[in-house]
Amino acid sequence: MKEYIRIGFKDPKQLVRARSMTRKQLLAYFALLTFILTFSMTSVLTNVMTNLQEDGSEIAETIPPFTIENNQLIAEEDQESYVHQTNSFLLFFDPNGAIQTEEIDTNLERLNVPIGIGLMQDEFYLNVTGQTIPVSYEQLDGVDQDRFIDLLSQIGSLSPLVILLMFIVAYLASGFVLLYEWLIVALFANILVTLLRLRSPFKKNARMALVSLSIPTLLLSIIEAFGYIVPFAFELKLGFTIYFLFTSLKTLVPVKKNNNDQ
């Protein structure tokens, strides 16, 4: 296994040797690359949760006094409707019935904000990444300003259990992403074998394809872990892996000797 790790991360020209991997080594290598992807995804999720917590606290500071009673939002008589926007939230506080849910959806899409909250005159509206979450004032009966602020303040809190669940979800998601990328690269590896007129079954090509993903996966994961978004990340990863596969497979092409008649 150590030999294949060395090849994958230090000497991709020797990828042809990865064709000898056992099934157990193949699964272990897949788990290793998934683990690398998971750290990147977990870092991104942690940043998102932290931003949610900060934005939730910011919105909580602007909430005026109110109470939800008898399926109605009860606020002070002179309270005007208003909208508060952060990077993560778009809050509509409307005790006067001046705002419609369609207006919330339109602004969420236009401003590219993931979460929309509508405290409206006779309706509570919650939209998360384009999906409406069914929550009614009947379920929130008795909720007032203080309780709502507590709820907002808890959004994005990172307890050890939440971090563990995030890691598990990220690991599973990373596994599916890696499986998809592996399949695409394996197909390209098979095409290269055909073009170079080599004899190598798909199973062996797939082993090479998995190991060829090592360097691109590590580099992109490190960059994304610091919060940077890499444009065309998959295309870049695919380009590197095809290059590594081509340079390694080329070493198997027999050298033709020209016999000149004297």
Automatic annotation (TrEMBL):
This is Uncharacterized protein DUF1189. InterPro entries: DUF1189 (IPR009574). It holds the Pfam family DUF1189. Keywords: Membrane, Transmembrane, Transmembrane helix. The chain crosses the membrane at residues 26-45, 155-173, 210-230. The lineage of its organism: Bacteria, Bacillati, Bacillota, Bacilli, Lactobacillales. It comes from Alkalibacterium olivapovliticus. It comes from the Bacteria.
